[in-house]
Structures are given as C-alpha cells and as structure tokens.
Amino acid sequence: MALSREQIAMRVAQELKDGYYVNLGIGIPTLVANYVPAGMEVMLQSENGLLGMGQFPTEDELDADMINAGKQTVTAITGASIFDSAESFAMIRGGHVDLTVLGAFEVDINGNIASYMIPGKLIKGMGGAMDLVAGADNIIVTMTHASKHGESKLLPECTLPLTGKGCIKKVLTDLAFLEIKDSKFHLLERAPGVSVAEIVKLTAGELMVPEHVPEMQF
C-alpha cells in the first residue's frame, strides 16, 4: 500500500535530530510538526517569520493570527520567537537551517528540483523555495512517486521550470525512500507492502536497487 500523507510525515520525522532547526514547506511537510519524537528538542521554522512551531492547533488552541507560510493556523512552543520575513530569509540564506523539507512536482537523477510552476496552470509564485534549496545542504523532498495519470515524477531530467539545480540528495515518496548520488536514484527503503518491481516500474530515472530493500518502520 502507498503511504498516506501522514505516514510520509511520520517517516520524515525519523530524520530529525535533537537540536535541529528545521524548515517545513507547504503541503505534506507541514504535517511533520505533528510527529516530532517525544523528548526531542527541535525548532521548526516557517519562512513567514516563526521559529518554534508546534503541532496544529485544537479548536481550543486555534488563533487566526498565528499562521505558517501556507496560511494554515499553527501553534508555538515554549521558547518560540516571531520576527519579520527579512530576518527569516537571512536565517535561510545564511545556511542556519539544519534540515529543509519540501514538496515537488519533479526531481531528477542530477538532484534538480521543479516545485513551483506547471505551465498553463494557476501559479501562486515560487515562495521561498529557491532560497531554501540554495541555502540548505540537507533537503528531503516529499512527493507522490507518480502523477495521477501514472507518469513518473522521478526523471532522467526535469521537464518543468527548475527551482534549483543539483541540490536534492534525498526523496521520500508514497512508495519509497531514495538517495540521489552519482546521477542515479538509489533505493533505500520501500513502503510496507509495496514491491520493488512497482517502484522500478514507476521510476523513469536510472534506479539502483540493492539485493535487500527493507520496508519502512513506523
């Protein structure tokens, strides 16, 4: 079975480390805030100027003025700080974020990412994605492995306008966890119940498959 959005977020949360400063992009990445391991101190950053995001609010906690970059209402943990977007992007551009989690339309074997524009469709703008991929060394892309038409999103070469070049090293899809190196996708883990053959079939870029591919654990 393919992973749900929540399961993708749960698997990403396993990549967090104590003391990390983490930027969560719009979409699936925002769900990671709900799955920070108990006892771990992580400061989640939103590019609109909040450092120290907590879980999504309950009805009693909801504050319409407390939002993330995707305009979703959020909470703030003890020790959080609020500042303007110029300071937020100074943090991002200065390389002070330990992990960035982004969504994408396409990723290719050279670590290129296309995440902000599909020609002919409504375009809201690239947001802070270009700054995030340029200012971070540790990036995890979350996405579906294929489009709703069954076309692979893991490609030999991106076809959409690029957000960044040569900046992506890890991709977590609804089917698999992969690393990009030596101009190839390397299969690290597969979703529970998903076969290696299915992943191979839906990966257009060159894919290296080890003899044993473990299932993800939650």
UniProtKB/TrEMBL annotation:
The reply to whether Transferase figures as a keyword in the UniProt entry is yes
Q: Which residues form the signal peptide?
A: none
InterPro entries from the UniProt entry: 3-oxoacid_CoA-transf_B (IPR012791), CoA_trans_fam_I (IPR004165), CoA_transf_AS (IPR004164), NagB/RpiA_transferase-like (IPR037171)
Give the keywords, sorted.
Transferase
Q: Which Pfam families match?
A: CoA_trans
* Gene Ontology MF annotations: CoA-transferase activity
Question: Where is the chain membrane-spanning?
Answer: none
Q: What is this protein called?
A: CoA transferase subunit B
Q: Which PROSITE patterns match?
A: COA_TRANSF_2
